[in-house]
KNOX2 domain-containing protein (Musa troglodytarum), 95 residues
Amino acid sequence: MPEGTHHLHGPSFLSLLPSANSFLITCLQVGAPPEVAARLSAVAQEFQMRQRASLICWDAAPDPELDQFMEACHDMLAKYEEELSRPLQEAMAFL
């Protein structure tokens, strides 16, 4: 793990960013037209490539408040994704 990303025992800002982004993209894709969902997937892939490239040279100073904020955002997006996906999954199971 790059310097600056392991200063806390729990998850850090940089370690949560990819999954928070993934949750957000998934939430936006729920019910979106296929062409919009495909574009969102492309944006997510581009973000992941840029994120990997930036982690190579990232040397962030520890920021516990930012880490706590990102952890709260991550948890909120995970719950939101679950809530958005549930009705769609139930409808698909009904069919």
Q: What stands out?
A: The mean pLDDT is 76. The longest helix spans residues 64-94. Residues 13 and 63 are 8 Å apart (CA to CA).
